[in-house]
Amino acid sequence: MKWGTNMEPLIEWLTAPDKEQIYLQKWTNNSKKPKAIIQIAHGMVEHIKRYQPFADYLVENDIFVYGNDHRGHGKTGETSGLMGYFADEQGFEKSVDDLYDVTSIIKQEFPDVPVILFGHSMGSFLARRYIQKYSKALDGLILSGTGYHPAMTIKFGKLIAKREIRKVGRTEPSSLLNALAFGAFNKKIRNAETKFDWLTRDKEQVKLYMDDPLTGFTPSAAFFHDLFDGLKMINDQKLIKGVRKDLPILFISGDKDPVGNQTIGVKKVINQYHKLGIGSIESLFYKDGRHELLNEINKEEVYQDIVKWIRRRE
User: What span, in angstroms and rounded, lies between the C-alpha atoms of 193 and 212?
Assistant: First the structure.
């Protein structure tokens, strides 16, 4: 099934406080008023255009969609000339603030319409930092393909990232860190045909990912250092206490997703939130689903479940 593949998103460029040009796409329908707006924070080494089918489905259900290419990704990265590089300093934090700037635009253009942030994978990590700072700006949060990273793993990663920065520089791709980040993800996939089979059981989607010049690239050492900074912050219990306690949150994950450690890591995050008083949490785990649920062989089911959850937030 395909949805509205002829719909062309509106394109806008935002200028961040540090003058970075941020690429933004909007999927809307001028003939209707939205019942809700989903803001998408995409994952690592991908880009917002990959969410076109999901956005089309949402718009057909009167839910408008906004989403930007993060720093070092997609059109934002192409324009800056540095793919896989957040910023010279505080790159993770600046990427979170970029998301808040998009939220502010949504609220200006559609006041009084519920805004729900959808964060996938790395986008879920950015979203988890976002709610530590700006949870009052949202009416809901959906975390897709998220995970939990122990403090020792983060500390070890930062040490390697610092060494790689000294060795290859801040902006050069780091094959070592890329291998450490992704190398083990295919281990539990039987008869894997490509190194990206962990993403989805849909072979056509895996091929599209591999053929896309803006996906699957190798990020810089500085990017990984910034990412580890972000992972440390989103685990910090003092910072989590800043999240609005009644914020509705939906966790979705495939039970074969290596990023979520086959749901173990996802459940750790859920338990952490529960213990700190965040009460309105739901979760959906999809049998045999891998990392990219929006591109899985049962994506229609996933789309429908997301819309049902959003309907209850309207």
Answer: 18
**Distance between CA atoms of residues 241 and 286, nearest Å:** 29
Q: What pTM was estimated for this model as a whole?
A: 0.96
The domain limits of the chain are: 10-149+234-311
pLDDT tens readout for residues 208-256: 999 999 999 999 999 999 999 999 999 999 999 999 999 999 999 999 9
Band of pLDDT at residue 4, cut at 50, 70 and 90: very low
C-alpha to C-alpha distance for 8 and 4, rounded to whole angstroms: 9
Check the CA dihedral 98-103-104-108 and report its sign. Answer: positive
**Separation of alpha carbons 257 and 62, rounded Å:** 30
Architecture of domain 10-149+234-311 in this structure:
3-Layer(aba) Sandwich (3.40)
Contact between 91 and 44 under an 8 Å Cβ cutoff? The reply is no
Which residue carries 């935002």 as its tokens?
A: 14
Rounded CA gap, 63 and 4, in Å? Answer: 14
Q: Which residues contact 308 (CB under 8 A, 6 or more apart)?
A: none
76/70 Cα distance (integer angstroms): 7
- pLDDT for the residue numbered 6: 47
How many residues make up the chain in this entry?
314
Q: Where are the alpha helices (DSSP H) in 22-110?
A: 52-60, 74-80, 91-109
* Separation between Cα atoms, residue 69 and residue 49, nearest integer Å: 9
- For the ranges 15-19, 119-123, 185-189, 301-305, which has the lowest average pLDDT? 185-189
Query: Tokens in use for 98?
Result: 């970029």
Residue 70 in tokens? 């993060």
